[in-house]
């Protein structure tokens, strides 16, 4: 994948990955290695300049409606209330769009339940600018989940949150995954988060990014936060950190 024509930035090269339906994978790698680019290609938000992306047996040629997405910068619409922002995908994605008029109360109750789950009960009628950045991020997670997407694409969705809120939301996400088993691709810089949440952690090389290694995570679910203090868990985190340091060192020596 190259941005800006033949002379432009080569963001991804020879990137290949397979994700099974219902699997939870995390993607980690040095800054600028192309993780967000990978997300844009999979969700069809950006066309690939080479290669193909297949989701649910079909080649991706435009934005995917089966995907729920949340990004590091919550992109809430400033003129809509929090509740109306969370309900936005229901106005766009079928079959919800067709049902929304007749079943608005049930859909609204669901959106309110999600907001409650992430600690935003009471803020439904506020506007995004009346909420802190972390609260907006939580609302954007609700918006990604409200239409029960079969594919959940999360690009550093917890990046701007304090550690306690972040850990709470890991468990919210784990609950959602256990209840509905969507396929999840989570991009994160937080290796503890990757190991806590994912079945498999994929490690990318420095730009142009490609998948250079993967690490299966052996723990059954539900996982509890105590797990993150265990020696074996921490050893996995260290192993990932070493791999990424190697990838960064390789980038530095290539640049010389
Ligand atoms: N729209 C764009 N136009 C031109 N170049 C871009 C564009 N988006 C990203 N790039 C370049 O592609 C490369 C990969 O960017 P990307 O955002 O995918 O990396 P990332 O791994 O998500 O980074 P980070 O971890 O810092 O968020 C970078 O060198 C970036 O400058």
From TrEMBL:
Highest taxon of the lineage: Bacteria
UniProt family annotation: Belongs to the ABC transporter superfamily.
Pfam families noted in UniProt: ABC_tran
Classification lineage: Bacteria, Pseudomonadati, Pseudomonadota, Alphaproteobacteria, Acetobacterales
ABC transporter domain ranges (all copies): 1-231
GO molecular function: ATP binding; ATP hydrolysis activity
Name of the protein this chain belongs to: ABC transporter ATP-binding protein
Keywords: ATP-binding, Nucleotide-binding, Transport
InterPro entries: AAA+_ATPase, ABC_transporter-like_ATP-bd, ABC_transporter-like_CS, ABC_transporter_ATP-bind, P-loop_NTPase
Keyword Phosphoprotein part of the UniProt annotation: no
Coiled coil: none
Family matches, as CDD domains: ABC_NrtD_SsuB_transporters
């Amino acid at each position: 994948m190259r941005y800006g024509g033949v002379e432009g930035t080569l963001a991804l090269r020879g990137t290949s990955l397979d994700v099974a339906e219902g699997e939870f994978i995390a993607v980690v790698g040095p800054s600028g290695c192309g993780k967000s680019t990978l997300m844009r290609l999979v969700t069809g938000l950006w066309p690939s300049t080479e290669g193909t992306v297949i989701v649910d047996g079909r080649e991706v040629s435009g934005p995917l409606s089966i995907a729920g997405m949340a990004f590091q910068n919550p992109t809430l619409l400033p003129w809509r209330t929090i509740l109306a922002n969370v309900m936005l995908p229901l106005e766009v994605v079928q079959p919800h769009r067709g049902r929304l008029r007749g079943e608005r109360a049930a859909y609204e109750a669901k959106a309110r339940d999600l907001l409650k789950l992430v600690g935003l009960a009471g803020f439904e009628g506020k506007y995004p600018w009346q909420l802190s950045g972390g609260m907006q991020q939580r609302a954007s997670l609700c918006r990604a989940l409200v239409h029960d997407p079969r594919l959940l694409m999360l690009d550093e969705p917890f990046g701007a949150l304090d550690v306690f809120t972040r850990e709470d939301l890991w468990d919210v996400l784990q609950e959602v995954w256990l209840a509905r088993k969507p396929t999840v691709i989570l991009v994160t810089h937080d290796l503890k988060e990757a190991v806590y949440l994912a079945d498999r952690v994929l490690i990318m090389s420095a730009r142009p990014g490609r998948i250079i290694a993967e690490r299966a995570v052996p723990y059954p679910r539900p996982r509890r936060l105590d797990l993150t203090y265990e020696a074996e868990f921490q050893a996995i985190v260290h192993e990932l950190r070493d791999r990424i340091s190697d990838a960064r060192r390789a980038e530095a020596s290539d640049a010389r």
